[in-house]
Task: structure prediction
Amino acid sequence: MHMPHTLQTLPLVTLCAMALVACGKSGIPPAAPSPAASELVVKIGASAPLTGPQAHIGKDNENGTRMAIEDANARGVTIGGQKARFELLSEDDQTDPRIATVVAQKLVDARVNGIIGHLNSGTTIPASRIYNDNGIPQISPSATAVTYTAQGFKTAFRVMANDGQQGKVLGEFAAKNMAAKKIAVIDDRTAYGQGLADEFVKSAQGGGAQIVAHEYTTDKAVDFTAVLTSIKGKQPDLVFFGGMDPQGVPLVRQLRALGLNAKFMMGDGGYTPKLIELAGAAAEGTYASLPGVPLDQMPGGKDFSQRYEAKYKQPIQLYAPYCYDAVNAMIAAMQKAGSAEPAKYLPELAKIEHGGVTAKIIFDEKGDLRGGAITLYQVRQGKWQALQTMSGAPAAAP
Amino acid sequence: METLLQQIINGLVQGSVYALVALGYTMVYGILGLINFAHGEVVMVGAMVALSAIMLLINSGLPPLLVLLAGMIVAATACMALGYAIERVAYRPLRNAPRLAPLITAIGVSIVLQNLAMIIWGREYHAFPQLLPNSPHMLAGAVINEVQIIIVLAALAVMAGLLVLVHRTRLGRAMRAVAENPAAAALMGVDINAVISVTFMTGSALAALAGIMVSANYGIVHYYMGAILGLKAFTAAVLGGIGNLRGAMLGGVLLGLIESLGAGYIGDLSGGFFGSHYQDVFAFFVLIAVLIFRPSGLLGERVAERA
Result:
């Protein structure tokens, strides 16, 4: 049970004071003193849902990005002979594709040098057009929908394997390793959830499994009893959910409460410490995947997670290390190009080779991570345990 | 058959929660003609405060039921204070303003409450401790647990209590008088401000109760939980006839049943053409259909527009 310490002691009176604090711009750091003449100010735009049901994951992204930027400022980076100072402009996209485009335009207007974001595929895809039109390089730490990099945008990159790879691996695992015969699928109708579920279905059917039900929900729902009851009647031996943990938690709880004994599987949206903490015993046995290798096997994973916990007083939720890598890959490209001008460092970013925390970051011609691995996890005795890591390399990759 | 029974149980539980929240909307509307859009957030605050209180007490060695009761009392008190404050700050100064003005402040209040809760309790989901027995019971092949039974019973009890309050007590008579004609009620010696404050406080206490019920049922609490719930409950209140207590109850249960049966069968009935994600569309379609034929809701009375 993690509770902020302030929670128990905070008297109601202080609320008003906090309200005043809230009125100040919370996302943007206070204006720094005017930079020295020789200093190069590089603005990194970041966007993720900082409010709404996925705020905890969005804040995790912002933390990872912020940590990379503070590290870079602390170690002192020079770009083209000039000392660079990095600034974070963080915007809340509320998981809403429409707001994402507004936020994207706002960041473009603020003349950011590069974008780290967004979190969800549903927001990343519409926003990517705006960044592309303005020639601003964008690295999404976590958008996994295939479409994102398939639009032919030179500015779109991501640092994890996509859902084409992830869904394929999950579907194969379900059909072959778990020998699931009857599978029920639920997705949250977002670009991510739907895309992942569709890839999963294709791959599972290819492996000989039968899809007995395909039901739908939204990324704001909390009650799934109706859908689950209807699924229960079809007696599946595996329930797959394409969505994020705010839905995954009540879903798995209700699944068990209804007496459904099927196994439960999610994609990367389910691989969070919160899923276990909140779903408790119901989470036991749940499968989930995450592009990349397990944190303790990442090149810099252990060190990163220790520093993250020391700094933010909470464990990594999901994508923070990927955000950290995205920022550092971008900075590395700027250093190579000797410029933070988007047009100048973009070609360098496309051919960057950056040894990151999560993996070696090399992009293919579409902007996808080359040779991205995918790891399957299962909740065992209240902990995520890595089952196996598979290469998610697409067959078409050269 | 088991599936149908299970879907009806699902709908009844969900509907009872909607009904509890809808009662708060309907009470305020009945008296002020105002839609208190901040009500959903009061539900959330109730759940959050209860959680904090319970976490303080949980290791004190008190029996779980007592801890839950204490949490309920603290939450209800906090929400009553909050309800009073909202009315005093956001609505009372605008009582004679055009109708749109208090609607805007209501939305404002709900945004403020949501963000305050985010600052105080954080962005993450919290687990709501399981204090009530939660073992599944089989009922002709369908599953129901204690929390769900309590939710349905509590909704019925609250509803009965409110009916007694409004129709059998002195305060209730004052409420009805204010609802009918505030000016005349004031002339007859009814303290309008006090009656309105009490109405807000009662509604907010119910919201706290609903918040705890929802949290106990789903096991999670989050600062965003009030938004969707509030919207659904508001829909339920309109469906049943806003301003009418029995209507709120009927509307809530109906909405719950429509959603659950809709989501459960729409896919199979339409041969997969409509999926279960159309459940909200289905619910709102029913709402529109009802409003076309009965503009004041199922049990609502047609009242002349108040000046």
Notes: Chain A has a mean pLDDT of 87.
